[in-house]
Amino acid sequence: MAKFVVTPSSEAQRDAWLGGTIPEVERVRPGLWSVPVPIPINPLRYVLVYVLELPDGVAIVDAGWNTDEAYAALAAGLRVAGYDMTDVKGVLVTHLHPDHYGLAGRIREASGAWIALHPADAALVHDRYDEGAIDALVARERAVLVRSGVPELTLDELAGASMMIRHMVSMAKPDRLVEDGERLDLPGWDLRAIWTPGHSPGHLCFVSPSRKVLFSGDHVLAKITPIVAVHPQSGPNPLADYLDSLAAVRTLDVEEVLPAHEYRFLELAERVDYVMAHHDERLAEIERVVAAAGDGVSCWAVATRLTWSRPWETIPPFMRRAANNETLAHLTWLEAKKRVRRVPGEPDLWFPEANSL
What we know:
By secondary structure, the chain is an alpha/beta fold. Helices cover 37% and strands 17% of the residues. The chain has helices at residues 11-19, 68-80, 98-101, 104-111, 119-122, 125-129, 134-148, 152-159, 238-250, 268-293, 299-304, 317-336; strands at residues 26-29, 32-38, 46-54, 57-61, 88-92, 114-117, 176-177, 192-195, 204-208, 213-217, 256-259, 340-343, 349-352. Helix 8 packs across helix 12.
């Protein structure tokens, strides 16, 4: 597949991403700021929090991780824009992952701001972040890995791999639920919510028709593709959801995409086409691996034979789990299209449809 490179709308932001540094706070346009908030121990390095000026304060899109460093960076960015943490009236969270949702509760404590999520993600907050529910979620993740064929020696390590970041979220139930198509009550803004499930069941993007900008969260990024995986809190066919969600934003009349990571860019439709083509290639590669195995192959075995950005042996446990579950999402999509067939068991085995039992 020919490489497609988007045009950055901020050269300084793009250069910071490529240079391995954190960009500066930027005034994107009148009434709108971009504040990078650092993410600890993560190749993404930062989440871009967007500050929307209101007549009586600001609203923000996403929040960052719940660390002192992240809180201080957000507070400093607000001061550059001429505001204080107490001026935050609302937190629009694109989805419930820790780098987007983690600080929301702490911000609410400081300012009284409301927190908004899509209902599908709001329904997952308790099981994901409440101390009393975490063991059950880990057990469900372990069951997914068992059926994927993950080796016994690494099962527990992979099942609990995300627990190391659990403390980076301030448990906070949302105050508002935002539905697909809802117009947000933000004076001076004409934001409309677009439900874009896939990366998470309740992922939201926000579009401003008058400013012709799309706050894309993790749905569409400039260089990387978001993880779309089967796991205990995913939908039954998250890749199908994601591809449908890409189609839903492709034709939006916007001039600039404001993602949560990397840097802002211009070409929404072209980037969407490229991401869709990437998934087509991955689906074809997985189909070839299943066909080559002939007599049935586990999801884990398929994952180990795919092309990744680095050798499989060098991928850390958390990312191996993500790779397995993303492979499972692609297999599930192929199964729904009757291009492969699953024989349930421990592990499930995958066969080419023509040779299935």
